[in-house]
DNA sequence: GCAAAAGTGTTTTCAATACACCCATGG
DNA sequence: CCATGGGTGTATTGAAAACACTTTTGC
């Protein structure tokens, strides 16, 4: 059969929390088309390598990040999405915590790879803006179902900080009291006994997520 | 780059309602491996054909069905999932109504293509059981969010009938009064003025789904 | 003592659940 | 008139939403 062979890439939309905002990792595209635009890390799938392996090596090689939470996303397959040749892209929504990001931060040049707040993105190439939007939707579902939270919030976060993250991801403000209640009465978090330091105003209690991470069912 | 070219197939998990049960369309596999097992319709993606086009021509050519409701599903990419060669499979959940199915029914031989209740499947080949299970999960979400209902229930259905379908899809019984309420107070259905005939017991009122099919948001 | 940000409780509203009796038809 | 399955209403519960004042710290 002619024409049945395709290029397929695993795409990584990697989210983390920086300054109480959801940020996405982008790299600068070095080649035409869309040279100089920012794009999502991705890696071609070879015919004897699984998708899981491909996405985790993509994370390590291109972003210097360990494998954490990965959820399969949508497929992007328009014939002209990569202009020059037809590449089918399979998106993955990945979550890494800010502590891990900070450790790796020094090693990378911000000219090549950088984090951008999802509400303040740079020029993004190809169809990657669509992919990021689809990923944000999935992130919202994850946050509301409290799946993968521990990958985004390592121990010692404050609730106001977490709330700001939720607000940045959902795109609208939340009530402080109701926000606390969601986590308290579901017994999801526990106090570490410490408080924030060096901030203006009253210090916030610090929390960690409890271990019991049962998959919550929606229905 | 060597080894970057892949076979990719669009897979169609097609659901319909028959005898108040959710059924899935399967075809008999004619070639080894898994010869004689039942498999999901699928079609190789050619490098200049979009995924949407591929799946709709797959529906038409292999099942003789018009394009109706299609929702992208998961990707199945294990290196050995098709045993002989590596084929990446992109699933699609499709809904067709029973009237359309009946019209096309005569033209196909049940030796080659047939509908099976999802709780009573025949021997299914390759990884297709995983794919069907993943599709059933997505179908459940669609039913609960009332998305695509009109593709599954054409005009003149009774509520008890619809309830049996929900119960077969969800795998547990539902309360009759509460079931009605869900549809009534959301203003989703309207009476056609007709009733079922030729059944034992009191005849059931027949309904149709109202046109206003706004995407319900979950959050 | 004042500015800044965090912590806390109560009321209301709405959706989901549980539950039992009457009604229309065919034989 | 009886068997079969369909139609209907109410009370309860629990989650989400709305809402304002007090507390802790740094300066």
Can you describe this structure?
- The structure is a homodimer of 219-residue chains.
- With 219 residues, the first copy, chain A, is an alpha+beta fold.
- Chain A has two domains: 7-142, Nucleoside Triphosphate Pyrophosphohydrolase (Alpha-Beta Complex), CATH 3.90.79; 146-209, Arc Repressor Mutant, subunit A (Orthogonal Bundle).
- Chain A has six helices and ten strands.
- Chain A has helices at residues 51-63, 98-105, 128-144, 149-152, 159-170, 176-185; strands spanning 5-18, 21-28, 38-39, 42-44, 69-76, 87-95, 113-117, 157-158, 189-195, 205-209.
- In chain A, the strands form two sheets. In chain A, strands 1, 2, 3, 4, 5, 6 and 7 form a seven-stranded mixed beta sheet that branches. A three-stranded antiparallel beta sheet of chain A has the order 8-10-9.
- The N and C termini of chain A lie far apart (45 Å).
- The interface between A and B is medium-sized, with 30 and 30 residues.
- β1 of chain A pairs antiparallel with β1 (5-18) of chain B.
- The structure holds a DNA duplex (27 and 27 nucleotides).
Decide which structural class fits the backbone of chain A: alpha+beta
Helix run count of chain A: 6
Quaternary structure annotation: homodimer
Domain tally of chain A: 2
Mean of residue pLDDT values of chain A: 92
Q: What integer value in Å does the Rg of chain A equal?
A: 19 Å
Percent in strands of chain A? 25-35%
């Amino acid at each position: 059969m002619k024409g049945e062979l395709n290029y397929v890439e695993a795409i990584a939309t990697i989210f983390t929390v920086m300054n109480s905002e959801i940020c996405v990792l982008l790299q600068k595209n070095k080649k035409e088309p869309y040279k100089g635009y920012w794009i999502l890390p991705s890696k071609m799938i070879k015919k004897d390598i699984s998708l899981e392996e491909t996405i985790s090596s993509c994370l390590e090689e291109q972003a210097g990040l360990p494998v954490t939470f990965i959820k399969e996303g949508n497929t992007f397959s328009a014939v002209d999405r990569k202009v020059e040749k037809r590449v089918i892209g399979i998106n993955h929504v990945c979550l890494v915590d800010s502590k891990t990001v900070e450790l790796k931060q020094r090693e990378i040049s911000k000219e090549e790879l950088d984090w951008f707040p999802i509400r303040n993105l740079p020029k993004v190439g190809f169809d990657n803006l669509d992919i990021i939007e689809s990923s944000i939707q999935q992130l919202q579902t994850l946050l509301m179902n409290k799946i993968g939270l521990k990958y985004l919030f390592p121990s010692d976060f404050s609730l106001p900080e977490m709330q700001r993250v939720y607000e940045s991801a959902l795109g609208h403000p939340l009530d402080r009291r109701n926000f606390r209640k969601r986590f308290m009465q579901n017994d999801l978090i526990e106090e570490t006994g410490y408080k924030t330091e060096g901030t203006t105003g009253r210090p916030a209690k610090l929390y960690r997520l409890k271990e019991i991470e049962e998959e919550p069912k929606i229905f």
